[in-house]
Specification:
The structure holds two protein chains of two kinds.
Chain A: H1 2-32, H2 39-57, H3 61-82, H4 92-114, E1 130-133, E2 136-139, H5 140-162, H6 164-174, H7 176-181, H8 186-207, H9 218-233, H10 238-258, H11 264-278
Antiparallel strand pairs in A: 1-2
Helix pairs in contact in A: 1-5, 1-8, 1-9, 1-10, 2-3, 2-4, 2-8, 2-9, 3-8, 5-6, 5-8, 9-10, 9-11, 10-11
Chain B: E1 6-15, E2 18-28, E3 33-38, H1 44-52, E4 59-64, E5 67-68, H2 74-80, E6 82-85, H3 97-104, H4 111-124, H5 126-130, H6 141-153, E7 159-163, H7 171-186, E8 190-195, H8 198-204, E9 207-212, E10 215-221, H9 222-227, H10 229-236
Parallel strand pairs in B: 3-8, 3-9, 6-7, 7-8
Antiparallel strand pairs in B: 1-2, 1-4, 4-5, 9-10
The chains are: A mainly alpha, B alpha/beta.
């Protein structure tokens, strides 16, 4: 029983980070109907930002989180201005291929600049620290990352539901023309949403070098898992993405421990297929 | 005579570069209630969308209080004082009535002012007060139309544009809407109305323009149009 709880907790801590990555993807989809296939690569870039700040300037990932969040916000906004803007109102495949191209570009750019080698940041503040509560052990870096994810998701959710700017985002998501008629600059909303969606992965990627090696392929699996979370939670639903993130993290950990590590993604994608088969629009989809 | 608040000159407009409106010119004077009438597909909605900035002219000019707004986006024309209630209401179905109304005053920053406008409109549309917390999709058709009108008035427009507000409403409700619009106009707001219900619209309007396949075929005072043989035959079945 104790082992089960321990594995479950490890899984849920990871799951919260998945949820944050998924929340960013979910926000962009919910408002703009665009699937950003470069989302995982944003995460990878954020990890490099955090890694190099740590390696060259001795800035701890815990602080680099801010820089990585801001950097990917800007990267997202620039992506919107240079690419996404021209795909709006075109068939969905256009944005899909454009962001897929961006993903390939970012991955190879980092491969070229930083080599495909795994880079590990040593001597971070959180490092290999653990926290013991009874018989349960919490790995501190993952715990902090999970709490950070929880706070950021909470803030975004509160912003969307309680502020006037958040209502404007909802209005734009529901009916862009009608939102324009309310005096909402929907072009600006799109730009900011792509930025915020990016900042979500930026923050997640910023903290990750505390416990994870950085390499050009690191984002691909996270991007895929984020996509699974968004589809499973119901496209455009942040609570859905959050729940799906926890579910995916738990299933991944449990399957990895009780069956075999190589089987964990089979369990995750098996769960995804089952949910989508039973509820094609996802858990919170309508 | 005063300057027109809205002046449309030789307007060509349409969708995806294909014109459906061919060289229309019209004027609205401050304080007037003007109706654009005509059959379905005549290009009335396209004219409205082009004036408010959701579409742009292929040719021609749109002047609002002396400013050329031909290339303005809709969120910019709203700031100048044009509010457009689109065809099909386009309320935010998943949001509460309250939020819909608050979004109508999105460009106003003073909370006190927003509250004042809200109270004023809830006086005119008391049914919306009772439904304030419900999502807009749960309202009846008539209530949704009231919400759309109230939301459009939350920005305190100088020019209020209404598109096919009678669509899908029962006759008694249409009459009530027409009375409401007259009252809004009497209170000082200039109104530009698009309607398929030609008679009902002309009965409350000062002047009217009759549109057929993208061109103005007749215009004049509402009385003149109501008395015109062609209009009566073509649109009122008389």
């Amino acid at each position: 029983m104790e082992t089960f709880v321990q594995v479950l907790i490890d899984g849920m801590l990871n799951g919260m980070v998945y949820a944050l990555v998924a929340a960013g993807l979910c926000l962009i989809w919910g408002v703009m109907d665009v699937i950003n296939f470069a989302h995982g690569e944003y995460l990878m870039v954020a990890m490099y930002v955090s890694y190099w700040l740590g390696f060259l300037l001795k800035v701890d990932p815990l602080l680099s989180v801010v820089a990585a969040g801001v950097f990917i916000f800007i990267l997202g906004a620039v992506t919107y201005q240079l690419i996404i803007r021209y795909t709006i109102g075109r068939p969905g495949l256009v944005a899909l291929l454009a962001t897929f191209g961006l993903a390939v570009f970012l991955k190879n750019l980092c491969m070229n600049w930083f080599s495909p080698n795994f880079l590990i940041l040593s001597d971070t503040w959180l490092g290999d620290k653990t926290l013991q509560l009874g018989n349960i052990i919490f790995p501190v870096p993952q715990l902090v990352a999970a709490l950070l994810a929880l706070v950021v998701i909470g803030l975004i959710y509160a912003m969307i539901n309680t502020t006037r700017f958040g209502w404007a985002i909802q209005a734009t998501a529901l009916d862009r023309d009608a939102a324009e008629l309310m005096g909402i600059n929907t072009e600006r909303i799109y730009l900011v949403i792509f930025g915020i969606g990016g900042a979500c992965v930026g923050i997640a990627g910023g903290i990750m070098p505390s416990y994870l090696a950085v390499h050009p392929e690191v984002g691909s699996m996270f991007g895929l898992i984020a996509f699974v979370c968004v589809a499973m939670g119901g496209f455009g639903s942040i609570p859905g993405a959050f729940l799906a993130g926890l579910l995916v993290g738990s299933v991944e950990a449990l399957a990895g421990f009780y069956i075999a590590p190589v089987f964990k993604y089979i369990a995750v994608f098996g769960l995804y297929l089952t949910v989508v088969f039973l509820r094609p629009k996802g858990i919170f989809g309508w | 005579m005063a300057d027109p608040i809205l002046k449309v000159a030789d307007l060509f407009t349409g969708y995806d570069g294909i014109p459906v409106v061919f060289g229309i010119s019209l004027e609205v004077m401050p304080g007037e209630l003007v109706a654009i009438v005509g059959a379905n597909g005549a290009g009335k909605t396209t004219i409205m969308r082009t004036i408010c900035g959701l579409a742009h002219p292929l040719k021609g000019k749109i002047m609002f209080e002396g400013t050329d707004i031909s290339q303005h986006a809709a969120h910019q024309t709203l700031k100048l004082g044009i509010s457009y209630v689109p065809e099909g209401r386009r309320i935010f179905a998943k949001l509460s009535v309250e939020k819909n109304l608050a979004l109508g005053a999105y460009t106003e920053n003073s909370k006190a002012e927003i509250h004042r406008r809200l109270e004023e409109l809830l006086e005119i549309f008391p049914v919306l007060r009772a439904r304030a917390k419900q999502t807009a999709e749960t309202l009846s058709g008539g209530e949704q139309q009231m919400l759309a009108i109230a939301r459009g008035l939350m920005s305190r427009p100088k020019l209020f544009m209404l598109d096919e507000m009678s669509l899908g409403l029962m006759p008694s409700m249409v009459e009530k809407m027409m009375e409401t619009i007259t009252a809004i106009n009497h209170a000082g707001t200039t109104v530009l109305l698009v309607e398929q219900m030609v008679q009902e619209a002309l009965e409350i309007a000062h002047r009217g323009y009759v549109i057929q396949t993208g061109k103005i075929v007749q215009f004049g005072t509402a009385r003149e149009l109501l008395d015109s043989e062609e209009v009566r035959k073509a649109y009122m079945g008389m």
